[in-house]
């Protein structure tokens, strides 16, 4: 066991422990904060695995943006601050399927890789990843930008229910205005 | 570096995510569990970048970046849907949403919104 292995074990244990708390805690807000711990430990994992850029993007987007959005949603839906008892369904099927998926994948991956060791490749710095993205992966990159734009527009349309029926409403308002105008003048 | 350690971490995190999606009633917590699954996939991609010798270097990390972008788009649209559900029904419990609802008339939306306003 080298130092990298010890670090990976420790960070993995933190990530899995925080993940368990995310899916079992009774506090809505604490679930979001445990998610921060889990994602931060995963960013540490990425650093040990020599994926520098991915680690920093993980911190920036996940810990910085996604969790903040989730906490906003928790507060906008007026979630109770303390313990809430109605967060869970009876969970035997969930435990069966989730445990089956997790343990099945574990057995598969352990069987495939045993205890063998590999040497880490060159670190994935921003320069090398940028070369790859803008040489070999340009088309997926552009498609992703279009997808982000469409998701943005979709979120705006979803959160404004008056967009779909704007025309009849403006007619109603115009009619109201026309009706009320003479009343005011009188 | 033993690649089996991050692989097992990712497998366990994915199982936890599946468990959370099936177990949780609150839609925001379901989205958090989806994030756990996406991160497990990211960890597998980054680890595979160290074990597999691909033609293009660093493809796994590039894919991990793409998955992060997809997750950001997914969380934006997902939260818009959750907030809209909360405005219409005053609840975010996913098993309170009837799947076989007859189509409402256009005017049918107004009372629900009014109820929400009255509930505040």
Count of discrete alpha- or pi-helical segments spanning 4 or more residues of chain B = 4
Q: Largest interface by residue count?
A: A-B, 94 and 72 residues
Overall, the morphology of chain B is elongated
Helix content estimate of chain A: over 70%
Poorly predicted sequence stretches spanning 5 or more consecutive residues of chain B: 108-120
Low-confidence stretches of chain A: 178-186
Assembly state (oligomeric) = heterodimer
Rough outline of chain A: globular
Tally the helices of chain A: 7
Straight-line N-to-C gap of chain B: 56 Å
| Average pLDDT figure of chain A | 86
Strand content of chain B: under 5%
**What is the radius of gyration of chain A?**
25 Å
What is this structure, in a nutshell?
The complex is a heterodimer of chains A (186) and B (120). Chain A has 186 residues and is mainly alpha-helical.
Blueprint of the fold:
The complex is a heterodimer of chains A (186) and B (120).
Chain A: H1 3-24, H2 28-48, H3 52-76, H4 92-113, H5 126-135, H6 138-159, H7 166-185
Helix pairs in contact in A: 1-2, 2-3
Chain B: H1 4-23, H2 27-51, H3 59-89, H4 109-119
Characteristic key phrases:
heterodimer; A: 186 residues; mainly alpha; globular; disordered C terminus; B: 120 residues; 72% helix; 0% strand
Q: Could you characterize the architecture of this molecule?
A:
The complex is a heterodimer of chains A (186) and B (120). Chain A is built from seven helices and no strands. Chain A has helices at residues 3-24, 28-48, 52-76, 92-113, 126-135, 138-159, 166-185. In chain A, helix 1 (3-24) runs antiparallel to helix 2 (28-48) and helix 2 (28-48) packs antiparallel against helix 3. The N and C termini of chain A lie far apart (91 Å). By secondary structure, chain B is mostly helical. Helix content of chain B is 72%, strand content 0%. Chain B has four helices and no strands. Chain B has helices at residues 4-23, 27-51, 59-89, 109-119. In chain B, helix 2 (27-51) packs antiparallel against helix 3. The interface between A and B is large, with 94 and 72 residues.
